Amino acid sequence: MFPGDAESRVLSEQMNGALGFSLGAQMMMVTVWPVDGWREWLGYTVAHEYAHLVRNLLFPRGLSGGKFVYMKTSLPETLLDAMVIEGIADRFAQGVYPDAEPRWVDALDDDASHRMWRRVRRRLAVSDPQEIRRMLLGDNDRIVRWTGYTFGYRIVESYLEANPGLQPAQLVSVPASTILAGSKFASDS
Question: Against a cut of 0.90, is the pTM above it?
Answer without folding.
Answer: yes
